[in-house]
Amino acid sequence: MIFDTDILIWIQRGNEKAAAMVDADTDRFISIITYMELLQKANNREQQAVIKDYLTQMDFTVLPLSENIGHRASIYVEEYALSHGISADDALIAATAIENNQSLVSGNNKHYKAIKDLHFKRFQV
């Protein structure tokens, strides 16, 4: 399963439900976009180190971008940016899930619900 950025942010804030969801899954993936978003949101190098240590300890696999992911994401932006507010980041994360035959778990239902090929699992706080 691919975990969206919001799930990992909920864990950082102490949300036990989000942590339990990650703990329950043995195959943990994130997109390189999520990895970059997490590092970008850190306030300093120490927080970046904590994030990297957590991802390593929990055995997350960071999935890279590919030409197919980029192409698919550009189609999603064209189709859904105006109607559903999907951003380039969300389109890349959704495309990563689809291209890697993985489900995506996120609390961001609004942006992802329109993508028919996406196996989406909604997280509710």
UniProtKB/TrEMBL annotation:
Keyword Magnesium recorded: yes
Going by the UniProt record, its keywords in alphabetical order are:
Hydrolase, Magnesium, Metal-binding, Nuclease, Toxin-antitoxin system
Q: Which GO terms describe its molecular function?
A: hydrolase activity; metal ion binding; nuclease activity
Q: Does the keyword Disulfide bond apply?
A: no
Domain PIN, by residue range, is: 1-113
Cofactors named for this entry: Mg(2+)
Cited InterPro entries: PIN-like_dom_sf, PIN_dom, Type_II_TA_system_RNase
Q: Which Pfam families match?
A: PIN
Q: Which PANTHER family match?
A: RIBONUCLEASE VAPC2 (PTHR33653:SF1)
The entry sums up its family as follows: Belongs to the PINc/VapC protein family.
This chain's protein is named Twitching motility protein PilT
Naturally occurring in which organism (per UniProt): Candidatus Raymondbacteria bacterium RIFOXYD12_FULL_49_13
